């Protein structure tokens, strides 16, 4: 009587199947978190309002010529006989001290503010995220060393540190301001990423992947990183508004973006001494700055509420 042969999976095949199953569970969990967060965002009126405002700001930054037929860099744009004149037909915001159209300058100033915010946010996220992940994964002396280095940079507040460095280094353009603010801003992302990595690296699915022989890089990018993105996304969204405000403050003090580049901070600085006699020269760039910063900070609040399960 012949016996029926039963094929059993080998040890390697069973381990591979378990690893695949673990990865599928992690992917499903992350997809569910993102899907639920996005679904919650779409139901919030504040997300729609801030999203529309930010889209308008991005349009101003990308194509300012669509919103004004004038160019602040053209010959004859500034006429001294129009100095500090109020709003008139064709000049909605009036003129500044040099006789330049404030509306056109405010529109073109949007680009520099948005670029500084975006470039600085990307740089701080990449630097802080990478260093924070390394510190959290490696631990031990490497974690201690990286944490002490981070504390050195974190000890300098953004504005005070910017004042100190730019007074020596020198500002003047978008890239130098973005570079210096990125140097001072990455410790915040570092602390968040490090804490999230430490909290997640001992979870069951990570331990299972490690037991099955997955490499450290595979564990870091396939298992740990996807589960640390939500808080990083929240803080980077809010930081956009913070960096735009910081750039305006540094430019207002005369060490950020400087002439011939256009900045809302420079426009506010030029108009402050004549506020009582010509308030329009200060109110319009200050209003544009306030709306921009408020829009990004409120967007960050909404994203935090949507992606944090504890806030629902």
UniProtKB/TrEMBL annotation:
Compartments reported by the entry: Cell membrane
Keyword Nucleotidyltransferase in record: no
Regions crossing the membrane: 46-67, 114-137, 149-169, 175-193, 224-246, 282-303
Main localization (coarse): membrane
Domain of life: Bacteria
Pfam families for this protein: BPD_transp_1 (PF00528)
InterPro entries (UniProt xref): BP-dependent_transpt_permease, MetI-like, MetI-like_sf
SUPFAM superfamilies for the chain: MetI-like
Membrane topology: Multi-pass membrane protein
Tagged with keyword Cell inner membrane: no
Any one GO biological process: transmembrane transport
One Gene Ontology cellular component: plasma membrane
Gene3D superfamilies, alphabetized: MetI-like
ABC transmembrane type-1 domain location: 110-300
Keyword annotations of the record: Cell membrane, Membrane, Transmembrane, Transmembrane helix, Transport
Family under the similarity heading: Belongs to the binding-protein-dependent transport system permease family.
Annotated protein name in UniProt: ABC transporter permease subunit
